[in-house]
Amino acid sequence: MGLMDPYLNKGRNVTTDNYFTAVNLAKQLKIKVTIIIGTMNKIRREVPATVRTMKDNLYSTKLYKSGDMTLTVYQGKLKKNVVVFSTFHQDVSLENNAKKTPETIKFYNETKYRGNILDQMAQKYSVRTCTRRWPIHSFQITLDLAAINAWVIYKEETKEKIAGKEFLVELSEELANINI
User: pTM to 2 decimals?
Assistant: First the structure.
């Protein structure tokens, strides 16, 4: 909630992954005029027991509603379904194609984009090494995110098109030369 403080009471959308999505958070955000949509882990208490073991027909959708909260269970693969929680979608329509994708899944996929790109870049261009010490691990993650943020700011300010890998190589060379 502290991270969201500048954006509360402005009618914004919060897209989360299954680690952060929870009914309690949704209720707190609803009071602050903010909606939440995100995937939900099936082992959470809030998820009905029938969802945990559900194996349905391919491309089928089940909806569970409680007040203004909707839980969409979509069987997108034979042995794996996706659970998406939303306070934005009261009625869920299905696409008119072979996969019959629910509106909540489509909306989640469109809004999760930036967070996943950051995760992919941090994984691809990382300074992380194997360590059992959490302060070192936290510092390495901070360095990864700082480098990606520096690249985004550099591209925005200079309007120069430079690949992430190329930027990070130049950044590391410049930082190494400063300390010599």
Answer: 0.68
